[in-house]
Recover the amino acids of this structure.
């Protein structure tokens, strides 16, 4: 039985296998995080904050300022909410939540060319947003972490575009642009949203409000 449809989506079997694999990845990531954190686990309150942030990210991903013709869009700060989790709790919870969010994005708009393409476009790209947590104890950590997170997301999208999506370009597409086009295309919408977001979260009232939310989230 095939796991993909002729249109590139998933069959029932495909959904089942992908969900099973995703669950195993989440369990493995949780195990590794708990081992490295000396048994320290997220509290119920912290898990609620993670769930709320991921829900807001998912909702705002539908609120698109504009969308590109071959996928990708500037949304109403959807990437920020995943980066906030890393900013609150560090890279471990940030990456795990980004991974779960990537699964939601896949289920929302699935398209399959290969397993590795799915990993690049969904799993690794959104998990990369959780690397914002590398700066969670740093001054201006949210801005630094957010920039790192979106750059990593763009890198995985670009890799997937270069390895897979370029094969679907028209025959008259200039070969000289093959290496640059995935980078230009993917970073065009990611950086557009990123610039807007950095400007907004750098405004003193917004920065103060986000700092208060962090104190509430980690207390």
């Amino acid at each position: 039985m095939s796991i993909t449809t002729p249109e590139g989506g998933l069959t029932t079997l495909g959904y089942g296998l992908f969900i099973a694999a995703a669950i195993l990845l989440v369990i493995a990531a949780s195990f590794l995080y708990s081992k490295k954190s000396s048994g320290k686990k997220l509290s119920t309150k912290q898990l609620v904050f993670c769930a709320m942030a991921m829900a807001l990210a998912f909702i705002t991903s539908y609120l698109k300022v504009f969308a590109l013709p071959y996928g990708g869009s500037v949304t109403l700060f959807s990437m920020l909410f995943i980066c906030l989790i890393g900013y609150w709790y560090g890279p471990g919870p940030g990456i795990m939540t980004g991974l779960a969010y990537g699964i939601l994005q896949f289920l929302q708009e699935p398209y399959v060319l290969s397993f590795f393409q799915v990993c690049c476009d969904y799993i690794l790209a959104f998990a990369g947003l959780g690397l914002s947590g590398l700066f969670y104890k740093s001054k201006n950590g949210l801005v630094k972490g957010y920039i790192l997170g979106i750059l990593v997301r763009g890198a995985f999208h670009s890799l997937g575009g270069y390895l897979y999506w370029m094969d679907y370009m028209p025959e008259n597409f200039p070969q000289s642009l093959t290496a640059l086009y995935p980078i230009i295309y993917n970073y065009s919408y990611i950086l557009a949203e990123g610039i807007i977001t950095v400007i907004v979260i750098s405004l003193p009232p917004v920065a103060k409000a986000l700092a208060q939310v962090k104190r509430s989230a980690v207390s």
